Amino acid sequence: MKIDTIRIDMNFGSKPAEAALPAVRELFEKSGAVRFGLSAARFEEILEQVAAKYSPDANSQQKQQLWRELRIEELVLVNNSKHPLILLAGEVVTGGKQDRVVGKDRIVPAESDPVDLSVFCVEHGRWVESSAKFDTHAYVMAQPSVRKQAMVANNQQKVWDEVANSKASMSANSEANLRRADPSSAAPSPAPMVELRKLDETTSYAKTRENKVIQQQVDDIVGPMQKSYESVIKQLREQNAVGVVVAVKGHIIWADIFASTGLLSKYWPKLLQSYAAEALSMSGERTEITSKSAQQFLDNWQTTHEVVESEPGLYRQTEMTGDKFKAFELTSLLPKQNFDLHLSKIVK
Residue 71's closest CA among 42, 97, 37? Predict the structure, then answer.
């Protein structure tokens, strides 16, 4: 979703606020703001605010700011640190006028110039700034079904649909779990139900995951797996284990593979929470898969199509399509650091 800056100059130009309204309306429509679930009244209100904000004497910097505000599916990131930054597809970024999810893996160089990121909105309908700053949310990695729509489908509407489906499923399954936890009672305790009903007030994926009942349900799933992981981590390090195959309710759905055990350990808390959220979203009985099935999934690399994108001297991303999978590989091209960093393999 890109708007030509020259077109902005032509459309906005030096018209007075009232005359600028049709041009601003066109800019919003081209940027996709209408698709963010705005009511007609709210949309007109925003248009009037923008038309009034940018005076007939709007300078180039103000026009660029308007363009940035309209480019909803992009974020500009500056890495001020002295070290390269890794961003993984699925990491949730909160703030601004909508929460977003990173759409693909990438490396941001140290002390970088502004870098455009490919992102998708995961908060349908809000068009009011919640914070002037953006933040990669501490422990929120989008669950695999949401990541899949951003990475594979690469479609905003499908991301919204999956966020809505996940919210509804997590809420319904959490309520069912509460009822099972106290079968002697006709209804669950009022307090958890009141907390769950708060989900009706938000479209934000991050806020859904932060809901106290949802988080407790996710933690209940995470607990045993985290203890198991901690008990075998030494053995995993000795075996140079660098990844995980994810299966939910007896179905393999995903694999995340990293360059090292250390990198896997760094991302493990976020990833584990995301896998647990996926489990909470799915109905059915718990069924384990065999290590043989997991190995077969990892061994199948027969591709029918590959697409390679690269930033010379920085990174290369390879998208691989097979008969029953999609895979995305991020490779570092940094000086003296040329190696595969992360691989996501997704069941179609």
Answer: 97
Ordered by start, the domain boundaries in the chain are 5-70, 225-347
Give the range among 27-36, 75-84, 266-275, 308-317 with minimum mean pLDDT: 27-36
CA proximity to 210, closest of 200, 201, 221, 199: 199
Tens-place pLDDT, residues 208-262: 999 999 999 999 999 888 777 777 677 777 778 899 999 999 999 999 999 998 8
Return the biggest CA–CA distance within the chain. 71
DSSP 253-296: EEEEEESSHHHHHHHHHHHHHHHHHHHHH--S------HHHHHH
Please spell the DSSP secondary structure of 172-187, one letter per residue.
HHHHHHHHHH-TTSSS
Q: How far apart are CA 174 and CA 158, in angstroms?
A: 24
Q: CA–CA separation, 299 vs 264, rounded Å?
A: 20
What's the pTM value of the predicted model, to 2 decimals?
Answer: 0.76
The 3-state secondary structure of the chain, one letter per residue: CCCCHHHHHHHHCCCCHHHHHHHHHHHHHHHCHHHHCCCHHHHHHHHHHHHHHCCCCCCHHHHHHHHHHHCCCEEEECCCCCCCEEECCCEEEECCCCCEEECCCEEECCCCCCEEEEEEECECCCCCCCCCCCEEEEEEECCHHHHHHHHHHCCHHHHHHHHHHHHHHHHHHHHHHHHHHCCCCCCCCHHHHHHHHHHHHCCEHHHHHHCHHHHHHHHHHHHHHHHHHHHHHHHHHHCCCCEEEEEECCEEEEEEEECCHHHHHHHHHHHHHHHHHHHHHCCCCCCCCCHHHHHHHHHCCCEEEEEEEEECCCEEEEEEEECCEEEEEEEEEECCEEEEEEEEEEEC
Tens digits of residue pLDDT in 33-62: 433 344 455 555 555 555 555 555 556 566
